[in-house]
Design brief:
CATH architecture of one domain: Alpha-Beta Horseshoe
Organism: Galbula dea
Helix content: 40-55%
InterPro entries: Leu-rich_rpt, Leu-rich_rpt_Cys-con_subtyp, LRR_dom_sf, LRR_RI_cap, NLRP_innate_immun_reg, Znf_C2H2_type
CATH topology of one domain: Leucine-rich repeat, LRR (right-handed beta-alpha superhelix)
Subunit structure: Forms high-affinity heterodimers with RNASE1, ANG and RNASE2.
Subcellular location: Cytoplasm; Nucleus
GO cellular component, one term: cytoplasm
Shape: globular
CATH superfamily of one domain: Ribonuclease Inhibitor
Length: 456
Amino acid sequence: MELDIQCEEMSPPRWAELLAMMKSCKTIRLDDCNLSSSNCEDLSSIISTNPSLTELKLNNNELGDAGIEHLCKGLLMPSCSLQKLWLQNCNLTSASCAPLGSVLSTQPSLTELHVGDNKLGTAGVKVLCQGIMNPNCKLQKLQLEYCELTADVVEALNPTLQSKPTLKELSLSNNTLGDTAVKQLCQGLVEASCNLELLHLENCGITSTSCREISALLSAKPSLLDLSVGDNKIGDSGLALLCQGLMHPNCRIQKLWLWDCDLTSASCKELSRLISTKETLAEISLIDNNLRDSGMEMLCQALKDPKSKLQELWIRECGLTTACCKAVSSALSVNKHLKVLHMGENKLGDAGVELICEGLLHPNCNIQSLWLGNCDLTAGCCATLATIMATKQCLTELDLSYNSLEDEGIRKLCEALRSPSCNVQQLILYDIYWSSEVDDELRALEESKPEVKIIS
């Protein structure tokens, strides 16, 4: 049984009712439920008496260090079988790390620990690492985003990683690590016996200086499938270094996030070579980089290569205009693998979207999710978009938010949604003005087709 409740205030009667249900639950999720340390006493009892409980998610609750101390009493019991523990944004400090470290060193069942958005600090994570290094610990996923970590944390992380072959995922995003620490981390990971699959280092103060070591890690660890270095100023020179590792035959990267990395069209030659030759690469995010039309045209040429297996391309806010849309259309008409295309916050205009739709209509195109929010669109392109919705059965999600579609455009989209051949399940229309009459039509449409969600 699964208990999944979010954003609910817990009155004493309601809490008593839920406690009775929890005794037989395999999964308990209580995010944003205004829980406190007193609730943790009850949860500790559930943890210690319900051996079927494998996942506990308590994000965004004011549990505090006292609450964690209560929880850990249950987690330390031999009857506990918990595998996944989520405690993000629970008002924890370094004081919570000693009891959590004890749990890690005692419970081999615990394989996931998510403690991001807590002020654990470097000192706290060093204590956690002592627990992780215990031979009993079989941790596979460790999430430490927004934990106020500094460069010194790598001194504890490296020996931990080198002693823990089970670790598969490590997220250190949004901590002020800096280049020196990231270099040391990567050097340690190259030497470590762990088979790391995911490494997230977003907003960690990385520049091009770190990219040679990250590149060496990519070429040394074929297990690494998911790398995110978004929101770091690596620039074109850093990207060129990264691509050396990404292009290495050992590299099996599947997901690569490079959003807001100060890239320009100069990087697109390397990125195009990567997209057209690295057949494992399934998803790439280039959001908020100044690629411009010339860069996009190079990427589109790569998408036409038969060896490209890319499934998701995120190019929101990349300085694109109508001028690149013919190339996008041509790529869509050839590429059979691309499923998700995010092109929002680019000045494509109606003329650009009309061109893109030509490619979308091609039998080769298998797009499932298309995002065109804030693209300077009007009702003028909605007839063509409606045709896509009504005829392209693979399309299940369409985002047209922040465009001036008005009543005329929304009515055309509604007509398409009513079509029996339309498979769109989610139409996203944030911040678009329409009349009360059209609003009534939208609500009636949702009632007649409950499988369709219109989000506004």
